[in-house]
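Batch manifest line 325
LIGAND: phosphoric acid mono(formamide)ester
JOB: complex structure
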Amino acid sequence: MFAPIEGNPLAGRDLLRLFDLTPAEFIFLLDKAAETKALWKKDARAAQAAAPYTGQAVAVILEKPSLRTRISFERAAFRLGAQPIVMSDTSSAFSRGESVKDTIMVMERYVQAIVIRSFAQSRVQEIAHWASVPVINALTDDFHPCQAVADFMTIRECKGRLEGLKVAYLGDGANNMAHVFLEGVALSGMELTIATAAGYDPNPVYLAEAEAMAAATGAQIRLVRDPTEALAAADVVVTDSWASMGAEAEHDKRVADLGIYQVNGESMRLAAADAIFLHCLPAHRNEEVSDEVMDAAYSRIYDEAENRMHAQQALLDLLMAGGLG
Ligand code: CP
Ligand code: NVA
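JOB STATUS: finished
ARTIFACT:
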């Protein structure tokens, strides 16, 4: 599908959203993630001994809560030989109101990469504007690209390919996970149907950008109201929380609005017989997804969570290569 990638085109770059990558670069990153996982599964001691970034450091700034992102980035940095420096809550880099410019210009004197979880996408863009070291978006209101790399890696592991597979995304179509599925599917030539209620459609700008990319890669994107339309013959069924971080006050309204999009045993029976279920977690069991689905053999949620670590290790390895003289 693509010309083979020579060298490492990601060296020194940022990852603020998946569309920072070309289709070929996305697959290149997924290949590196799979290779990283295989190396560490084969011989973790030898892989650790070969860590390429000894003496370097990665800052992880968390302006929202995290379990998976925090631990997986800490482990990924450590496995590369780099020191992870996590700043969250009251010790967060920005908690005293220091300007983004001053904060980043200082921070990059100490660290070789900056990972940031925040609210507005414009904040990570501003950080990337000032930083000369790679900046990685570890979730904003609009995008969660690191989760997407792990998710598409998991799909490839389970299905052996991406191109042509049908993905059903049920629930909040306007959140960061819906947006990264639009981008990931468009980059990899898959078929995505988002089933959501009126008022929860994807950001129209991101949808249009994904449709333009889809036209180039052969991907297909549909938006429907009826969840059964999305589920029919789906190879991958995905959902996410209905009230994302920052939208907690709307929880009860969202439960009422999105109730018919719950992924349960009945939903999975409409999908392909060998369909898998993914959820970035944390899940709100028996809201957007039933216990039956979460705990089923076709649920790959814990592999998906594990793959955050391998995928982010691969990502740091590729991006930080720009700083090695
Ligand atoms: N999926 C994910 O990003 O989880 P955390 O919010 O726990 O980091
Ligand atoms: N959409 C969710 C994802 C959590 C990892 C949120 O933003 O809260």
